[in-house]
Structures are given as structure tokens and as C-alpha cells.
């Protein structure tokens, strides 16, 4: 009997007695009773029920595997460049694996991610706190004036546990090369060769925030309250929001949705492109945030397209006017990138009016938005108060227009 069974198994389970209906011979003696359609169908192809169940479970497991596939693509040294790009500098260098100081958990070359991917990336980032590091940049280690030196002391004094790093033109280039040349040589190329240095300076803050995280702030800012207290204070009494779930903090610098106070003419003459604007002279983020990845990709693609549209196709001939600078690497593109991310992560269109007139922090996805007075007090518009509730003050120097 045992050997019969074995043979039957090898021959095929359909002839194995244990899979047969109890009395198959008897069934032929009387007319087949009318059966429900599924069992007719099953008996027709003679699939035993157990096999159907096993098959179904296999298919189910396969789909569960597919569902988790994006999370498994946790590969080091992925590039920002969308696949299929064919820039002159994009793929001409050999891509070797490096050990950057931070490996973003999910970096995919595609620009758009599904909401599920964004949420799982945000969840991944929220496992770690904000790095305790302050970044500033200046041409050399000699700050422009005593005032800047005094302001810098406020960052040290109020944040004694934070590491501080001032990147000079020289060390910033090293930073960019060390962190990006292996994976994104085109970024390094842009950073090195853009003739208008404001573009490189803008790019640099996104690269720092993306790769290292922590706080980036322009050299003309002054700290008013310890950085570690910002998120809690801004969240205030917001219900159901966990401090750890915030992965990036974005400050508003323009909130002029109220047309009765701010006419279209006012907005136009003040040189803004929208009535809500997020500032990019300070960025507080955890490393690897999707907003920064998108921003860097988007800046890179825009400049690449502009170079291609030039007759000389030379980066040395790229010249932007003030509006174009704001649009290419500055707050216009930054604002647009953030708004798009918020729509994607929340899963609906979040209108400008939802940011209007906020007095406390507002959270969309893993982004904490600060009202104007927190980072940008005393600007004389947007309902910004003065210093009392502010976390920092920006002493606008606008040095960039001169360079
Ligand atoms: C970047 O890396 C490539 C080799 O991968 C090298 O040829 C090039 O000189 C590097 N660029 C800089 C600025 O170091
Ligand atoms: C900047 O250049 C763009 C495109 O050439 C042009 O439309 C715009 O009026 C210019 N803006 C200023 C402020 O010169």
C-alpha cells in the first residue's frame, strides 16, 4: 500500500486514492446530481480542494511579496537622477558603491512616489530624532562683520549640545564632492561651475539638509530659543500629533492671502509669485527627506534644461535675472515643491488658504509649518508679530544680489 501511494504521488496526484472522491465508481452508476456551478467547474478540471486552497495561498503570498517589494529596495548609492536621463555628465563616470555618512532608507530614481511609499518613508525617518547639528556657510572662516559673529554666538549659547559647522567656499566644495560625486556627479558639476554663486549657495543648503540634516540657517540669523524646543512649542496643543512624526520643519515668510489687505499689485510689486511662500534661508530637517530629494532633482533638471536650450550649451553662459533665480533655486521652486509633496502625502489638494493666517504650527503629513512670526518676525507684512514668540530672527542682508 505504501509503495502504491508513493508511486501514485510521483505519477501525479490525480490518481492517488487519497485525493479521489469516496466512491468514484458508484458515481457513474447514477445520473450526476445537479451541482452548483463552482463545484461543477472544479470537478470538471479535477482539481482537489486542498490544491485549490494551496494555490490560492501561493497567489496571495506572491501579492504580499509584491506589495512589500518597494521597501526591499534599500540600496546604497542611488542617484537623484531620474532613470533615462542622458546628460553629458550623468552617466559618464563609473558608479561605484560608497559609504556615505547617511544612507537614505528609500531612494528611488523616479521622481514621483505613491502615497503609500511616502508614508512608509516618513515612518522610517520618524524613527530617528533631528540631528543635533547646526550648519552655516560663509565665503571664509572670517565672518563679514562683528554683528555676524555676535549672532553666531546666539546659536552656540542657546544650543550647547549641538555640533556647529561653518562651511567655507573651500570646505563646502569638499563636502559636496565627498557626499555626491560618486552617486550624482552632475550635482557636483553644477555646484562647481554655475557662474552665479547664489545658485550654488541655494543648492548647497538643500544638499546639506538632504545628506546630513539638522538645522541649516543663513549667516545673518540670530537664535532666540533653543532648537530642541521648537517642535514642541509649535505643536502646542495640537491633538493627536506625535513630536517624533515630524520630519521636517518649514517656515512661512509670506502669508498675504487676504486680498483686502494685500492687493494683486502689492504682491506683484513686492516680487512674489504666490500669496503663500515658504522660506529657504533656514531648513530644519531629518536627513533623507523626500522634499529635499525632489527639490534637488527639480533644480538639477531645470538648470540642465536651461543649459541645453543655450546655443553654446555651456554652463558658463547660464545667466538668470533675480526672478529667475527665485524660480530656479530659490523660494518659488521651494514653495512649489513643498506644496506638491503635501498634496501627495495627504492624498488631496491642500489649498493655499489652509496655510493662511495660522498663528500656531500646522501639520500636513510629516511636515510642520510654522507661522510667519516664528522664524521671520518683524517683516512688516503677513501678520508677523515681533520677537516675543519667535524662535529666530533673520537680519536680511541680501548679500546674494551683489555676488
Ligand atoms: C568625480 O569622480 C570622478 C570619477 O568618478 C572623477 O573623475 C572626478 O574628477 C571627480 N570630480 C571631482 C570634482 O572630484
Ligand atoms: C527675467 O527674465 C524673464 C525671462 O526672460 C522675464 O520674463 C522677466 O521679465 C525678467 N524679470 C526681470 C525682473 O527682469
TrEMBL record:
Pfam family, one: Gly_transf_sug
GO molecular function, one term: alpha-1,6-mannosyltransferase activity
Presence of the UniProt keyword Transmembrane in the record: yes
Location of the region described as Disordered in the Swiss-Prot/TrEMBL record: 17-39
TM ranges: 52-69
Keyword DNA-binding on entry: no
GO CC term (a single one): mannan polymerase complex
GO biological process, one term: protein N-linked glycosylation
Signal sequence, start to end: none
This protein's UniProt keywords: Membrane, Transmembrane, Transmembrane helix
Family the UniProt entry places it in: Belongs to the glycosyltransferase 32 family.
Stated name of the protein: Initiation-specific alpha-1,6-mannosyltransferase
Organism: Arthrobotrys flagrans
